[in-house]
Write a structure and sequence with these properties.
With 437 residues, this protein is an alpha/beta fold. It contains 13 helices and 19 strands. The strands form five sheets. It has a six-stranded parallel beta sheet, sandwiched between helices. It has a five-stranded mixed barrel with strand order 15-16-17-19-18. α8 runs parallel beside α9, α9 packs parallel to α11 and α12 runs parallel beside α13. The structure holds 5'-deoxyadenosine and iron/sulfur cluster. Iron/sulfur cluster binds next to α6.
């Protein structure tokens, strides 16, 4: 049987899930997955361009294949993902890596099979990058490898145009899937035994956006009322669209996890304005307050950016102060990365690497100390864990509670896919450990 190997640049969850779709398409063509690129008949790179290091990761990986391709002339190399979707990037890739056989955009993912067949019948590379085309994904069946967790796209693209972000340019305008299709997919996955569903979109709160008959909270409610024991999560929520109705739905439906990822990006009003986030730090705190009013134990996580153009020391201090006020369960902290084509890339006042580095270290130290403090409070408590995996090195099973905390525990029997109660007796930074009871 022919074999495929794929490499994903971890940029966002969207990208990881798209790799499952690529794997689904390849298995429909008769390929099976392999664990070493040397054994592959086709290697697919699913790239990301959200930050420069993601882009470098892709370029580095593709570059390393030159030698292998020289030895294995029949191996097909395909490059997809949002990097290819940037204006002019497909040509750059083709010139830099002439041995790449197929270059396809995120909007073209559904036609990967046709490109492979085309390439097999022609010598020259197949390059297909389309503009906005929202329908293609619907027919793609994913090869899901993350049991007991699954991701379901509910929206594609983004209309927000935060000034630092390349996503609206490479993933096109926001469009929502039909609620009936989403609910049917969720129902099917639950019947197949999946235990945790995460609804995905760049901004799930604006689901529907005038084109669907139901709102995001209504969609959540409908999925949460499906039969079976499962957890429901969603990401990402834009704070400007986070509503009281959503907080209520989380509170009223036990299957919806009390955990919300609400990226704030900065605590400074001047920076938020320059980022075009369309809320102030006070607006953000108000949203958190509303959420906690209905869901007092809700774990709030966030994304933070340091070193946005013109960010002053005072602006940065405002971010630290907001982090202190909210007490995030955890946070992803990023150094601002200049993306060509965005509004911020043209701004004067780019911050030096040295300053950004210092700021991010300070921010990470603060976030970590908060996470550690919260971890300590778990000791002695019993939490329900969905067992996700087995860590061969640690010889322990691991899973998460509804708040998203990772917990390690021992077991003689295979518990993957089961809900188990674990009494916490150890807190090691962000992860916890305990005993099954
Ligand atoms: N530089 C740094 N971080 C970025 N993000 C998006 N674009 C950039 C950029 N140019 C971060 C944001 C977003 C997360 C998915 O990635 O914090 O919420
Ligand atoms: Fe990018 Fe902003 Fe859209 Fe998120 S909401 S994908 S940060 S433009």
């Amino acid at each position: 049987m022919a074999k495929f190997y794929h490499i994903t640049t971890y940029g966002c969850q969207m990208n990881v899930h798209e790799s499952e779709k690529i794997a689904g398409l390849l298995s429909e063509l008769g390929y099976e997955s392999c664990t070493s690129i040397e054994d592959a008949d086709i290697a697919v790179f699913n790239t990301c361009c959200i930050r420069e290091n993601a882009e470098n990761h892709a370029f580095g990986n593709i570059g390393m294949l030159k030698k292998l391709k020289a030895q294995k002339k029949n191996m097909i190399i395909a490059v997809g993902g949002c990097l290819t979707q940037q204006i002019g990037k497909a040509d750059v890739l083709h010139k830099k890596f002439p041995y790449v056989d197929i270059i396809f955009g995120t909007h073209n993912l559904g036609r990967l099979k046709d490109y492979i067949l085309k390439k097999q019948s022609q010598k020259k590379a197949v390059i297909e990058i389309n503009d906005d085309d929202g329908k293609v994904y619907e027919e793609v069946k994913s090869l899901r490898t993350s049991y007991p967790n699954v991701w379901i796209n509910i929206t594609y693209g983004c209309n927000n145009f935060c000034t630092y972000c390349i996503v609206p340019y490479v993933r096109g305008r926001e469009r929502s899937r039909k609620s009936s299709d989403i609910i049917a997919e969720a129902k099917e996955l639950i019947s197949l035994g999946y235990k945790e569903i995460t609804l995905l979109g760049q901004n799930v709160n604006s689901y529907g956006n005038g084109t669907e008959e139901i709102s995001f909270p209504e969609l959540l409610e409908k999925i949460a009322s499906l039969e079976g024991k499962f957890r429901l999560r969603f990401m990402t929520s834009h704070p400007k669209d986070f509503s009281e109705a959503l907080a209520k739905v989380i509170a009223e439906n036990p299957k919806i996890c009390n955990a919300v990822h609400l990226p704030v990006q900065s605590g400074s009003d001047a920076v938020l304005k320059a980022m075009n986030r369309r809320y102030s730090s006070a607006d953000y705190l108000k949203k958190v307050e509303i959420l906690k009013k209905y869901v007092p134990d809700c774990a709030v996580t966030t994304d933070l950016i340091v070193g946005f153009p013109n960010e002053t020391e005072e602006d940065f201090k405002a971010t630290l102060s907001l982090v202190e006020k909210v007490g995030f369960a955890s946070a992803f902290s990023f150094v601002y990365s200049k993306r060509d084509g965005t509004v911020a890339a043209k701004m004067e006042g780019q911050i030096s690497e040295e300053v950004s580095r210092r700021r991010i270290m300070e921010l990470i130290a603060l976030v970590n100390s908060q996470t550690r403090e919260q971890s300590k409070k778990y000791i002695g408590k019993t939490v329900e864990i969905l067992c996700e995996d087995y860590d061969k090195k640690k010889k322990m099973y691991l899973g998460r509670d509804e708040y998203g905390r990772m917990v390690y525990f021992e077991s003689d029997t295979d518990l993957i896919g089961e809900f188990v109660n674990v009494k916490i007796d150890g807190a090691n930074g962000i992860s916890l450990s305990g005993k099954v009871i």
